[in-house]
UniProtKB/TrEMBL annotation, chain A:
Name of the protein in question: ABC transporter permease
Alphabetized InterPro entries for the sequence: MetI-like, MetI-like_sf
One Pfam family it belongs to: BPD_transp_1
Superkingdom of origin: Bacteria
Organismal lineage: Bacteria, Bacillati, Bacillota, Clostridia, Eubacteriales
Ranges annotated as spanning the membrane: 5-23, 94-120, 132-156, 185-207, 234-253, 287-308
Subcellular location as annotated: Cell membrane; Membrane
Domain ABC transmembrane type-1: 94-312
Entry similarity comment: Belongs to the binding-protein-dependent transport system permease family.
Entry membrane topology: Multi-pass membrane protein
From TrEMBL, chain B:
Organism, as annotated: Fusibacter paucivorans
Protein's membrane topology: Multi-pass membrane protein
Localisation per UniProt entry: Cell membrane
Taxonomic lineage of the native organism: Bacteria, Bacillati, Bacillota, Clostridia, Eubacteriales
Principal cellular location given in the protein's record: membrane
Protein name: ABC transporter permease
Amino acid sequence: MWQKIVGTLIVVLVLNFFLPRIMPGDPFNFISVEEGSVTVTLTEDQIAHYHAYYGMDKPMLEQFTTYISRTLRGDLGISIYYNRPVSEMIGERLIWTLLLVISALGISSLFGSALGLISAYHARESSILDDLLLRMMTILSEIPDFIIGLALLIYFGAHLKWFPLAGATTAFAVYDSAFDAFRDYVHHAALPCLTLSLSSIGDFYLLSRQSAVSVLTEPYILTARAKGLRKRRLIFHHVLANAISPILARIFMKMGGMLSGAVLVEVVFAYPGIGKLMREAVSMRDYVLIQGIFFYVAVLILIFNTAADMIFKKMKQRGFHEKL
Amino acid sequence: MKSYKIYLAIIIIAFAVYTLFGGTAHQAVSGASLESPSLTHPLGTDDLGIDILAQLIHGGGYSIFLGIFSAGSATFIGSIIGIISGYIGGKIDHFLMAVCDIITGMPQMILLILLGAFLGASYLSMIIVLAMLSWPQTARTIRARVLFIKEHDYIRYSKQMGTPLYAIITRHFLPPLKPLLTLAFIKMMSRSIMMEASLAYLGLGDPTSKSWGMMLNKAMAFPGIYFTPYWKWWLTAPLIALVCLILSLMLLSKEIEV
């Protein structure tokens, strides 16, 4: 496991360093030309000065070693375009993204697994409810998240005008109370959060349905049924208790995918999270910022994946592996 | 229920006919800008006066071929690595699986954005990048299957009789792996199409192409698109086409799975 973590970190660092440097053009060429014109506003001397300032005139290897040692110390450098420390900028934006991802994860895992349990309970009688849910969830889990987002935006945002079209807060708003501020946040986060939840609810549904169906065939369920236990107690006490570990592991595994999904969804809703920052950084050719974001997200995903791995290991020890 | 196959067939035929007879309608201005749907322009025109139906057909072919090429190469790489890893085992297996772990552990969408931004998004580079990112899943399923097949007696006999590795792979491993490979191919195809659409939607696709993601990007970039009636055909047409394509691929894979 350690070897996987170290390996991933090394690949991330290497990619992060070399990718921007093998591409044609550099940020100073980019900012030295005004958008839409051909006149150059930075002289050769100025470009050379900036190269020296950002250490881009040194040999590749030296740049690489300073990059590694700095990154490991937590110093991600200063954004070339915005001229601010990268970790500070990411910190500001990361809160919004995590807010989205965590609430969407909570909603989708809760509703997804509840629906999965209900569906699994009815699956034996080949009911319409199970059939309908299964179809709907399979379709939902296939549609890419930005398309769900666009559809929601068009319908609820543009057509019905229930929700704002962009942003995380009302611009220039002055709140009377903390509750007002909170309401504004929720109002803005509702659609992006709903999008992320909808795109991952199918996953949780299918997983919980599958593991609940396999639990339901166990002899102890038959015993419980024969004892005359009520339906609700059977589902929440016996089935859920035995089906919950794979769902827990999936929550952590899903976290990484959702962070990636959030990038697109944030662009759809112009939500000021890390995804939108990434989009801005790419269009400005801001190497340092892009590297910083990539590093942050990769490390976050690594942490979540390791957590998921640990849960899997625990489950294997308890003999859950055959149900996965 | 088989209607999705008809849909798939329509797209493929439409694209084939369109390219074979040298269609350029997806680039040519053929009407006033932002016309609403009419007989000459069944889905209206965009802001430059280009027919949207022509763009839609062109984009469909673009997406499907991109999916076929990238999923094809990913299945090829994945099956070779999976077989080698499962059959030979030992240190090679360990190393290859570690590589798989690292690639799947990366934030793929963000890596794709990075690569798209830095390497430029030509058709070829897009296919290569998508293939490089998606082979590990196939490799892993194939490896698991190979580990199972390997234990059969006929493989051992054939090895003892001195059958070369190449022949063992093509004669004994590939036939039982075929359904698995077909399934992996279709799943990867829909994933690639989705990824390309997402990238193009972000504006990182091939700017000269008229892929569905690119159409969405252009429509969304139109100032105040929601306050005009244009989104009704300009935005929804590629949206619905994309969803239908992905869903029909899903139904196809479900049919094979069972």
